[in-house]
Amino acid sequence: MRTLLVLLTVALLAGGVQGDIDPQTDEPETVVITVDSTNLRFSPSQVTITEGDTVRFFWSGQALPHNAVEANGVFDSGEPERAVDYSYTFERGSNGTYDFVCEPHESMGMVGQITVEPAPPLVVEAPETEAEDTPFLSTSGTLLSLFLAWAFVSRRQGNG
Ligand SMILES: [Cu+2]
Fold first, then answer.
1. Is residue 9 assigned to a domain?
2. 145 and 111 part of one domain
3. How far is the CA of 88 from the centre of ligand 1 (A)?
4. Which range marks the domain in which residue 83 is found?
5. Same structural domain for residues 139 and 78?
6. What is the Cα–Cα distance from 51 to 119, expressed in whole angstroms?
7. For 71-92, what is the mean pLDDT?
8. 69 CA distance to ligand 1 centroid (A)?
């Protein structure tokens, strides 16, 4: 009896947590990375996003020209410019860590890192009818096994 209560509590908690997470993560977001007042740093230089989100490299009126180039060429804002507006969307399956640099100022520490976390599954529905389905499934499974056994036995008898 105590075990049943614990199981029920766990199931309820799991359902409640899932319901809280879903609405937020479904919305794609855009994170803006710009250049700070020192002219030699990305701001922010480290961001954590979720698959489906977009990173927008955006600056204008800079004293120096900058760009943003990913270490493996995943994204590249092009030639360094004093005004840049370049966006890159991290699709599903792109979770991982992405290092990028401003090519003219990499040696001065103008580097950054984007961490992309996996998106949750597209369809998450609490299996409310599981408790009712399971006995039915096992019952029909047992009946099927009995039928197959019966068919097998009668066929053997028929052949022999
Ligand atoms: Cu730069």
1. no
2. no
3. 18
4. 28-117
5. no
6. 5
7. 98
8. 11
